[in-house]
Amino acid sequence: MLTHLHIENFVLIKNLDLDFNSGFSVITGQTGAGKSIMLGALELALGAKADSKAIFQGEKKCVIEATFNVKGYGLESFFEDNDIDYSDECIIRRELSDNGKSRSFLNDTPVLVSILKQIGIRLIDIHSQHSSLLLESNAFQLSVVDSVADNAEALKNYKQQFKSYADLCHRIDTLKEQAENAKSNADYLQFQYKQLVDSNLKEGELTSLEENLNALEHTSDIKNSLQNASVLLYGDDGVLTKLHSLQNSLNSISSFGSNYADLAGRVSSCTVELKDVYGEIEHSNESVDVSPTQLEQMRGRLDTLYSLLQKHRVKSVEELIAIRDSIGEQLKGIENFDSDLEALEKEKSEMLLKLKALASVLYKNRCAAVEPIKRSVEDNLRFLGMPDSKFEIEFTECSELTSCGGESVQFLFSSNKTKPQPIQSSASGGEISRVMLCLKALIAKNTNLPTLIFDEIDTGISGNIASQMGTILKNMSESMQIICITHLPQVAAKGSTHYSVYKDSSVNPVQTIINTLDNTQRITEIAAMLSGDNITDAAVANAKELIEN
């Protein structure tokens, strides 16, 4: 429950520290005094959109700090999941600077605004003057039914299964799109793949071909050089002829010293090596021959490779091989699309059966909740002066499953004995307020929400009906903290704690002040609500009677 609220430099509130009690608290004050400013500050602390215009005139920063007692509400896991220290006393703080920047803290730990929103919906429900429009929302109507049906766990399981189902459907749609695009391009891919396969690509082939072609195109030069080399080695005046004469000269004196023998041996080694060179030159000379057919084949092969390189915009045969293999994998994938889709469709059918089973559980629970909801709302409406009112719930099967189940819900209402019609078109503003209060009272019994705040839910109501509405709010406060902003003395008199809001025009700029009233002040406040500024003895007596009753 909300235990304390600190507001500093927010709109017309300069500085406020307000303690809250359990039970039923009421907030009263003249129209325009700023009763809803406190709610605006609380909503800001709980993650509402920040606007620097909300900062008190002339100040640089506003601070809102709300303290809650969260003992027994099972929020430990939320704090653990978000790496925040848990304490039974939960402190939420929001700071807003005049430059538009804001900072958020949870138990003095800096957090994102989204964290404040997540903790906020677990701590408090603020029913503003426009919240009755929710009654027209299918999602809200369904949430009312589910809260009474105790569908929280079943709905959680269903939503998890629905998400998995939706993800699978998305995968199937994506795969179908890929398959369609791939198949439309399959003929071209097949042509490219066949062309690359038929080309019989080999790593290093391009370099080898270029070298061999270069050699063939210079065959005559090579042959002439080889023949010249042969003559230089073994001609009449060739190197080998002269080496032979040199070796004979050295051999003739080798017996006169070992050094001469060594020199002769070394010349002999050179002769052997050069003879080997000569042999290879002769062999090469014989093998070098210009073959027009071979030359044409090489040029044709290179033209093929160059064409492929240019077509695929790469620079090597190795890259062409990689492209060939990649296209091959794509073609295999296209062949596998049908089998993959068949497997996914089978999985989808199985998952849909599970989802329908979970949806059936939701529907069964919802149907079981219809009569208790109808009975509770109609009983409270009769208590609120609508004896002939009828409230019904109508389910309509959806064409396909949604994230909330297999059916939509429609609240039907009639304030007289006519056939109930959709509530958004058949109820007046005052009737909407009463129905909304009845639903909130019903939800309060079936949720673990600590605090519920009403901002003038009693609009369009007066007299004895207002007193009855106050009784319902009082009864609700037995199981949760209820705070109600009201302009009706009959409702205000039911409160166990009373706060008064007024504008202090004696200061500049004008400020909104909120005070906690003692019993005497409370009597005066309710008397003023009954008779206006001129408080009569009769109004005071009436105020005392309202409080006592």
What does this structure look like?
A hairpin with a 6-residue loop joins strand 10 (405-414) and strand 11 (421-422). The radius of gyration is 47 Å and the shape is elongated. It has 549 residues and is of the alpha/beta class. Helix 7 (205-216) packs antiparallel against helix 11, helix 14 packs parallel to helix 15 and helix 17 crosses helix 18 (537-548). The chain has 18 helices and 15 strands. Helices cover 56% and strands 18% of the residues. It has helices at 35-45, 76-81, 113-123, 138-149, 152-184, 186-198, 205-216, 219-234, 239-251, 258-287, 292-312, 317-383, 423-426, 429-446, 463-476, 489-492, 519-531, 537-548, and strands at residues 2-10, 13-19, 24-29, 61-69, 89-97, 102-106, 109-110, 124-127, 390-402, 405-414, 421-422, 451-455, 481-485, 497-504, 511-516. The chain starts with a strand and ends with a helix. The strands form 3 sheets. Strands 2-1-4-5-6-7 form a 6-stranded antiparallel sheet, covered by helices on one side. A 6-stranded mixed sheet has the order 8-12-13-3-14-15.
